[in-house]
C-alpha cells in the first residue's frame, strides 16, 4: 500500500484509485466558483482591452507583433496572479488551496503523462489538420509567427511563455482554482477532471481548436486527478508544450520553414 502522499504505483492503478479515495478536506477555504469567475473575467477583459488598443493604435507590423505577444501573455499572468492573491486573502494560500506541494513522485507522473501527451497531441493534430485544414489547427500564437521573422527578444519571450510561464499560470487557474472550487462543492474528482478539461479548452477562446484542446488536456488532467496535487499537471503541461514551443521559436527565428 502506498503512503498517503504518494500516488498509486502505475498510471492505471492511479486512475482506478481516483474514484475510491476520499476527497481532501478544504478547511479554511472561503472561496469557490465566484473566485474563478472573477479570475476569468480579468483574463477576458484584459485580452479584449489589449486587442482593442492594438486595433486603434495604427501600429506597424512590428508593433502588431508586440501587441499580440503582450495580449497573449499579460491576461494569463494577471489572472493567475489574482488566483494566488485570492487564496491568500480568502483561504490558506496557494500551497494548500491550490495543492502546490512539491513531490518527486508527482514529477515522475507528470513526465510520463507529459510524454504520453506529446504523442497524443501529435496524432490528434495530424488528424485534426486533415479534417479541418492546417490553418484551423494552428494556435493564435502559431498564426502570428507563420511566415514572420520575430526579433530575438520577442521570439525567446514567446518560447518561455509557451513552454513554461503559460503552463504554470494555466494550471494555477484551471486545475488549481477551478478544481478547488469544484471540490469545495463536494463533487467528485472525476467531475472536477471533466469540467476543468472542458472549461480549459473553451477558455483558450479559439473555437475552431476547442475539440483538439480537449484531447491535449486529457493527460494533463489525469496527472492532477491521480496525484491530487498540481505539480504533476504542471510538469505534464510543460512537457506537452515544449516541442510545439521549440518549433515556434525556430520558425520565428527563420531557422526552419513553417
UniProtKB/TrEMBL annotation:
<dbReference type="GO" id="GO:0080120">
    <property type="term" value="P:CAAX-box protein maturation"/>
</dbReference>
<dbReference type="InterPro" id="IPR003675">
    <property type="entry name" value="Rce1/LyrA-like_dom"/>
</dbReference>
<keyword id="KW-1133">Transmembrane helix</keyword>
<keyword id="KW-0812">Transmembrane</keyword>
<dbReference type="Pfam" id="PF02517">
    <property type="entry name" value="Rce1-like"/>
</dbReference>
<feature type="transmembrane region" description="Helical">
    <location>
        <begin position="66"/>
        <end position="89"/>
    </location>
</feature>
<feature type="transmembrane region" description="Helical">
    <location>
        <begin position="234"/>
        <end position="256"/>
    </location>
</feature>
<keyword id="KW-0472">Membrane</keyword>
<feature type="transmembrane region" description="Helical">
    <location>
        <begin position="187"/>
        <end position="205"/>
    </location>
</feature>
<feature type="transmembrane region" description="Helical">
    <location>
        <begin position="211"/>
        <end position="227"/>
    </location>
</feature>
<feature type="transmembrane region" description="Helical">
    <location>
        <begin position="109"/>
        <end position="128"/>
    </location>
</feature>
<feature type="transmembrane region" description="Helical">
    <location>
        <begin position="148"/>
        <end position="166"/>
    </location>
</feature>
<feature type="transmembrane region" description="Helical">
    <location>
        <begin position="31"/>
        <end position="54"/>
    </location>
</feature>
<dbReference type="GO" id="GO:0004175">
    <property type="term" value="F:endopeptidase activity"/>
</dbReference>
<protein>
    <recommendedName>
        <fullName>CAAX prenyl protease 2/Lysostaphin resistance protein A-like domain-containing protein</fullName>
    </recommendedName>
</protein>
<feature type="domain" description="CAAX prenyl protease 2/Lysostaphin resistance protein A-like">
    <location>
        <begin position="156"/>
        <end position="243"/>
    </location>
</feature>
Amino acid at each position: 500500500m502506498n503512503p498517503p502522499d504518494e500516488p498509486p504505483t502505475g498510471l492505471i492503478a492511479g486512475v482506478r484509485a481516483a474514484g475510491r479515495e476520499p476527497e481532501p478536506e478544504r478547511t479554511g477555504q472561503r472561496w469557490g466558483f465566484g473566485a474563478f469567475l472573477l479570475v476569468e473575467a480579468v483574463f477576458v477583459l484584459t485580452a479584449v482591452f489589449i486587442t482593442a488598443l492594438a486595433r486603434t493604435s495604427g501600429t506597424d507590423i512590428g508593433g502588431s507583433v508586440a501587441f499580440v505577444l503582450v495580449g497573449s501573455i499579460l491576461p494569463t499572468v494577471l489572472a493567475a496572479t489574482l488566483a494566488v492573491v485570492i487564496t491568500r486573502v480568502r483561504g490558506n494560500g496557494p500551497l494548500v488551496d491550490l495543492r502546490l506541494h512539491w513531490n518527486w513522485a508527482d514529477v515522475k507522473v507528470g513526465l510520463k503523462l507529459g510524454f504520453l501527451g506529446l504523442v497524443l497531441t501529435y496524432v490528434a493534430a495530424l488528424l485534426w489538420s486533415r479534417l479541418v485544414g492546417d490553418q484551423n489547427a494552428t494556435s493564435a500564437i502559431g498564426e502570428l509567427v507563420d511566415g514572420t521573422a520575430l526579433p530575438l527578444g520577442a521570439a525567446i519571450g514567446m518560447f518561455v511563455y509557451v513552454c513554461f510561464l503559460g503552463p504554470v499560470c494555466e494550471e494555477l487557474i484551471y486545475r488549481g482554482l477551478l478544481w478547488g472550487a469544484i471540490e469545495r462543492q463536494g463533487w467528485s474528482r472525476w467531475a472536477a477532471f471533466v469540467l476543468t478539461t472542458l472549461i480549459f479548452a473553451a477558455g483558450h477562446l479559439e473555437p475552431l481548436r476547442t475539440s483538439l484542446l480537449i484531447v491535449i488536456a486529457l493527460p494533463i488532467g489525469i496527472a492532477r486527478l491521480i496525484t491530487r496535487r498540481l505539480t504533476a499537471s504542471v510538469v505534464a503541461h510543460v512537457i506537452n508544450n515544449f516541442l510545439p514551443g521549440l518549433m515556434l521559436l525556430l520558425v520565428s527565428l527563420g531557422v526552419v520553414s513553417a
